[in-house]
Amino acid sequence: MACGTFWMPAAAQGRFETYRCGNTYTDRPCEGGRQLAVDDARTESDRRAADAATRRAEARADQLERIRLSQEKEAYERSRRSAQDARQAAIAERRLASTEQLARARAQKLGSEPRRSSPRFSGAAIDKPASAGGGSSSRKKKRNDSSAG
Question: What is the mean pLDDT of each run of 10 residues along the chain (149 residues)?
Answer without folding.
Answer: 51 66 86 82 90 97 98 97 96 95 89 71 53 51 53
